[in-house]
């Protein structure tokens, strides 16, 4: 997920919408403890209207070293792309994996595997962007507070409660796992205009 940000803070709040964008500079980070690190790689991000962005992802059942490597690569790709959220299908891996870190200094990297949102409350309007739609931002109404159940890279189950930007980011990335995109929440006319611009390869004015 990409957020539109006009200052050094993670988000600026407005009366009708929460306006968000992230710029995070690349540097080393430590997510997993207790195993030898593998070299991370930047993965190419699929751009809309790539058909694989519309496919429902498969549940992860193999919690091997390869999964840890993929999770590291997802995070590094997210950071390098100035994002605060990224899903596996966006890098052409049809598995139910998302990464999230809304902090400006990479202090809270999260990997959620097989995530399921179990509770949501308080709809709020946010302006969202997406790394698969570079430069486009649209207002989307989503729950401000959520509870999500997921697994970590070792397969251990956990429950996470989130609110605000973090909750929105998790919901946005979970949508990707079911082939749903943030433009599905806007009017048909606006979605059509974005589609045409993305097909032409034009950036928004």
Record the SSE blueprint.
Blueprint: E1 11-13, E2 18-20, H1 65-80, E3 85-87, E4 97-100, E5 110-130, E6 133-151, E7 157-163, H2 164-177, H3 188-200
Parallel strand pairs: 2-5
Antiparallel strand pairs: 1-2, 3-4, 4-5, 5-6, 6-7
Structural overview:
- The protein is an alpha+beta fold and 205 residues long.
- It has a single domain, classed as Alpha-Beta Complex (Peptide Deformylase), CATH 3.90.45.10.
- The protein is 21% helix and 29% strand.
- The protein is built from 3 helices and 7 strands, in the order E-E-H-E-E-E-E-E-H-H.
- Strand 6 and strand 7 form a beta hairpin.
- The chain is globular, with a radius of gyration of 16 Å.
CA(first)-CA(last) distance = 20 Å
Determine the fraction of residues in helical runs and give it as a percent range.
10-25%
Q: Spans of 5+ residues with little confidence (pLDDT < 50)?
A: 5-38
The total beta strand count reads 7
Going by helix content, strand content and strand pairing, the class is: alpha+beta
Global shape: globular
Radius of gyration: 16 Å
User: What's the number of domains?
Assistant: 1
CATH class: Alpha Beta
CATH architecture: Alpha-Beta Complex
Task: Give average pLDDT, whole number.
Answer: 85
Q: Any idea of the CATH topology?
A: Peptide Deformylase
Name the CATH superfamily classification: Peptide deformylase
The number of helical elements comes to: 3
Taking the sheet with the most strands, its summary is: 7 strands, mixed
Order of helices and strands: EEHEEEEEHH
The percent range for strand residues is 25-35%
